Amino acid sequence: ALLGANRLVDRDANKNIRVWDLTADRYQQIMDASAGRGRTALSADGKTLAIADTNARQVLVYEVGNAKRKH
Asked: How far apart (Å, rounded) are the C-alpha atoms in residues 22 and 1?
């Protein structure tokens, strides 16, 4: 699990990526496991999530909150 700017990132049993908003005590976002199968990193401000896609050998970067892919 990763922590940044009152957000926690983890994976469920199906490998879906979950972003938990700790101030609201609820999930802010759940991303399908197809978003990336490797390790995750959350920016210090909690606005950007990077996911290593080990199958495609690339790093995917998303905006937290809307799951819009940035790169």
From this structure: 13
The token pair at 19 is 């972003």
Query: One-letter amino acid identity for 50?
Result: A
Q: Using one digit for the tens of pLDDT, what is the confidence trace for 5-34?
A: 788 888 888 888 888 888 888 888 888 877
Return the amino acid letter for 1: A
- Can you give the C-alpha Rg of the chain in angstroms? 11
Q: Specify the long-range contacts of residues 38-47, CB closer than 8 Å, at least 24 apart.
A: 40/2, 40/9, 40/11, 41/2, 42/2, 42/3, 42/4, 42/5, 42/7, 42/9, 43/4, 43/5, 44/4, 44/5, 45/4, 45/5, 46/4, 46/5, 46/6, 46/7, 47/5
Q: Could you give the CA distance from residue 24 to residue 13 in angstroms, rounded to a whole number? A: 23
